[in-house]
Amino acid sequence: MDKKTQSPVYLAVDLGAGSGRVIAGILENGRLRLEEIHRFANDGVHLVDTWTWNTTGLFANILVGLKKAGDRFGDAVRSLGVDTWGVDYGLVDERGDLLGLPAQYRDGRTEGMMEKAFEKMPAEELYAATGNQFMFYNTVFQLLAEQERNPGRLDAAAGLLWMPDLLSYWLSGTRANEATIASTAQLVNAATGDWAWDVIERLGLPKKLFGDITSPGTVLGPLLPQIAEQTGLNAKVVAVGGHDTASAVAAVPAREANSVYLSSGTWSLLGVVSPQAVINAKSFDLAFTNEGGVGGDIRLLKILCGLWLIQECKRDWDEDFGEVDWDTLIQEAADAPAFVSLVDPDDPRFAAPGNMPARLEDWCRETGQPVPNTRGAMARMIFESLALKYRVVFDKLADLVGHDLGTFHIVGGGGRNALLNQFAADALNRTVVAGPVEATAAGNILMQLVADGAVEDLPAGKELIRNSFDVQTFAPMAPSAWEAVLPRFQSLCKSSAGGSD
Predict the structure, then answer these.
(1) Domains and CATH numbers, the chain
(2) For a FRET experiment, which of 65, 259, 356, 387 has its CA 20 to 30 Å from that of 344?
(3) Degrees to nearest 5, angle at CA 1 with 83 and 36
(4) pLDDT tens, position by position, 326-379
């Protein structure tokens, strides 16, 4: 396809915590076809005592991708939208200039901030107001750290823009707080969709930081003239589901209202789409979160460690022994003995990067389990433990919503791992449907299609997704073996430093 094409093209700028892509969505013959245009690394930068994002470097790479798209598709490109990971933000002054590089969510500056927040507003009241699961990196705790370490920066700030908001502003010149990304902050009232002003006031955060909340599918405006000239694009910028999980869930090809989704990547996000927030004593005790969906609904979910453990192990193994490809590693895991050792993936000791294999070995020693003696054995331990964690959380979710749950859909990069998908089917004792792998980009583009009038609404967009992408189905093969090991896994989780399962 080239500049002469008549098929409309939509660009997804999709940024994860490790890499970013510009992906073209080409709408032709009633199907959506995705084509990766540009991929680039997203590496953190350690400046003095803070891990930050190289935000200007990310933007430069986005422009490279947009220029490639302009060269390839020209005026066929109708719009673009940006999605990223949640919670992280930049502060801007009255002119819109960035006040310092955005900090990474894994930076240690939030240590102790949760406890300080609870001194001002008890945990139960904070949860009742926002419906968000307590995570040390939530924006609210980052802002308290900012208030303590850099009060002058908050005083100088005229507004807060989460990462997709900031990048969209640099592309369009329009500042907006998109609803789904704002909902990750623990600063939005999940029941009303407006800012949780009582939380903001009681925690002493400046109200001036928070602008009007913008719905997904809103056109922010055309590309700034200098961006249009540099990239050769004559396109508009759309506020899509700015939180990557919101975009991924939009592309889940589910037909049943009670379907379960697992967005599988560095993090695992497991939940259902709910017409309203679920905030009660049980959801608080079970630590479920309520975040905004692209259709104005709620993503009721639990945030879990995902492929982080195996990604970190692979990084160490690649450095020590030379790079191994994922297919080889997964096959080594398949060949390793089953259920030798298990680990709670969400134990706090595994949250930080670095030396993951050694920490997992220490876990096994401390819990009286055999230490994995091969790379495959370590990988199998991680994959089995992830699948068992899915089962534990699935059971809690069913208890919370009070009705039967439907098909279990896995979307995102983790859906490529057929071994883990089969483990999930066995651990859950139910059918698992995996795909689309590029759900985040597809969901990003879906909201652009709605904004452009190319599809009527979100349900029509989901039908387009079903018609456009292949999925794989995994049926349970040995559920009884997984049922037998489940109590052992639950006991390990209860005894871990952060376990409550």
Answers:
(1) 9-242 (3.30.420.40)
(2) 259
(3) 30
(4) 999 999 999 999 999 999 999 999 988 889 999 999 999 999 999 999 999 999
